[in-house]
Amino acid sequence: MMMKQLLLSFSALLVFLLHCTTTIAQAPAKSPKPKLKGPANVTAILEKAHRFNSLIRLMENTQMGDRINTELATASGGLTLFAPADNAFASLKAGTLNSLTDLQKSQLVQFHVLTAYNSLPQFQTVSNPVPTQAGDTSKGHFPLSITMGGNQVNISTGLTNATITSSIYTDGQLAVYEVDKVLLPLEIFNPLPPAPAAAPKKAAAPPPPVLAPSPAAPVANITSVDASSAMGLMIRHAAVSFGVAAIAAFFL
Q1: Rounded to an integer, what distance in angstroms lies between the CA atom of residue 40 and that of residue 28?
Q2: Is the separation of the CB atoms in 47 and 60 below 8 Å?
Q3: Given the DSSP bridges, would you call strands 79-84 and 174-179 parallel, antiparallel or unpaired?
Q4: pLDDT tens digits, the chain, 252 residues: what are they?
Q5: pTM for the whole thing?
Q6: Which residues have a Cβ under 8 Å from the Cβ of 180 and sit 6 or more positions away?
């Protein structure tokens, strides 16, 4: 009898354990919490594409990569990057980048960054000149003109005519487009000649010198001259009269 009760108790325990195991196995697994998406890292995006090593080095040397990432984390309007591939940098004249100052290298990178996010269709309605991080868009500084014909986006700097060849990355905050040429700004590679200096004003001509009056010529003593002339006439008249009288007496 006692053995029978033990078997019943053991059976009940087995049934309970089997029920608990089945219940646990059927409970749905908890889904992992989604990772919060942070701002894009522009350098990491370019590295993943495996053909932007020259641009990455230029960004690292000028610390512009860190600046772009910081602005992506804080700016509300987003950014657009035109990324020349390695073959675009290779087509530049030898020594082009080495001839630039540190400031000019930074400006060159900034010239490839638009201050707002632009999807490809938005390039149809952009207002030229398009502002970049390089700053001033006035003539002779950093003008950038973007036009769209069909599905092709054309970019002109006044020195370079480039085309967007592919879309590398876009998330509504950052857009990265590959371009087939390095965008060369006029300000760096073809600066306007300085305005000619104003011609110096001619000095006023000095006034003519005041000439001292020349000394008056001595005035002849008119009275003395007239008296001498009269005396000579009287002598000649007397001589003539005397001669006439002598001749007359001779013939008498």
Answers
A1: 34
A2: no
A3: parallel
A4: 555 555 455 555 555 555 555 544 454 455 444 444 567 899 999 999 999 999 999 999 999 999 999 998 887 889 999 999 999 999 999 999 999 999 999 999 999 999 999 999 999 999 999 989 998 666 667 889 999 988 899 999 999 999 999 999 999 999 999 999 999 998 898 875 555 666 666 666 666 666 655 555 554 454 444 545 545 555 565 554 555 455 545 444
A5: 0.63
A6: 84, 85, 88, 162, 163, 165
Cis omega (within 30 of 0) on the bond before 129?
A: yes
CATH of domain 42-189: 2.30.180.10
218 vs 214, 215, 223, 226, 227, CA distance in Å?
12, 9, 14, 17, 19
